Amino acid sequence: MELVLAKSQDALVLTSISKRAFDSDIEVGGTKVGGPPGYQSHKYHIKMAAQKHLYTFYNNGLIVGGAILFKDGTKLYIGRIFIAPEHFRKGLGTKLMELIENLYPDVTSFTLDTPLWNIRTNNFYQKLGYEIEKKDKEFAYYIKCNKLEQKSWKETFPKSYRPEITDLEKFMEPNIYCLFRNLAEYILQEFDLRFGIPVWTEKQGWTYRIGKAGVYLITGIRIEKNRFVLDDMEVASIEQSCLLIEYVKQIYRNNKDDFYARIAEKNKRQSERCAKRIAREKKELEELYSKIVPERFNVFCWPAKLDIHKLNKLYLQDAKGIQDEILADEIGLTLYLRCKYGKEDMERMERNIIRCHGCGTELAGERDFRQCCCGLQYSYKEYRRSYRKNNMPTGAAEKTFTMFMQKWDRAKTYQEKIVLIDTLLHEFHLSLVSGATHRPVAMNFIDGSRSRVEQIISDLARNT
């Protein structure tokens, strides 16, 4: 027996097996013939094969079943498995699950879901050691943890590597990360507070803070794989999470006045510095006025953001099996240019260099005023402000952006390109729900109001 990545030519056979397998559920409690989305669609299985999610299960050289799997770091979501009905009750389902788990020795947790009414599949997964993590009105959600030797938080993320949102999700056990995210969402909704960028301590490694506008109410939140800790309070269960929320409420009530007074004082100092800066720059501008040609001064042309309607159109068409390669190229190129110039221009500015938006020449120097050989003129300070004002992407999730650029250069097929776009959307969604950043990453790439961008990313995350 073996489990291998499916080829496109396997899709027709696997579609037939999938349809017969899921339609047979009517014999064990199903109310009607049917199955999960795409279970009887040839196009869907071709798409899953192209994206390397579809696997073929062989027994003695014969295709007897398949699986659709989604790996994310050290986590594996078992989207579905199916066995041809004529091979039921031969132990092949158990063997298929063993092959899946053995195929991914680095995975620390396997998750899946199955309808509550399906007694057959619920009993099957429980016998294999899967435990119910949660339920809703229709489904039971299972998890099985693979106990591997793990490095500590400090060992995994040394001082030279500040963890990003995706790193945090991959490091923590799924249920612990869920508790951490729920805390982030609660403090954001109730108190308009956020998790700030982590800070390094020699004893605990990277720790998190909760605050607003650069002023922190709570500091020193420690991270471990199976819990997180604030002061002496450990959180490894829903009950402990509820206790921590009450503790945070108490801290907020007791320190609210002082906290907002500190924010007001910081804002006051910032306003004073801003007024001095404006006065200083006005004076500098007056001195440079004789050199400035208004129609050539500070003419910025940053790469455009993505049209939110085009992104939605791409995914609606893809869901119908329509491969709009021109639209995928346009969207991918827009994302690519935002990534490229966001990264490259920040690296230049860190060396006190800016790029002429007319001809691309690099303009170095110590003075604020820069003039290009093509005739365009710039203020270095205004260049940096324009970069930030246009939400050029940098910092958070930089490794994801770099990976996207590298792979986009090599992507040839529609399937390869749509997978890369999916990867960035996943990063956008993580940023949106984590509470660990002040502005969702998606705002760097997608044109629209914050509420509209958040809505479209949430909708796409549910439907892709």
In short:
The chain is of the alpha+beta class and 464 residues long.
What does this structure look like?
There is one protein chain. This protein folds into 3 domains: 2-145, 3-Layer(aba) Sandwich (Aminopeptidase); 153-255, no CATH class; 292-463, no CATH class. The model has no long low-confidence stretch (mean pLDDT 87). The radius of gyration is 27 Å and the shape is globular. It has 14 helices and 17 strands. The strands form 4 sheets. It has a 7-stranded mixed sheet. Strands 8, 9, 10, 11, 12 and 13 form a 6-stranded antiparallel sheet that branches. It has a two-stranded antiparallel ribbon with strand order 14-15. The protein is 47% helix and 19% strand. Helix 1 (11-23) packs across helix 2 (42-50) and helix 13 packs across helix 14. It is α+β, with helices and mostly antiparallel strands and 464 residues long.
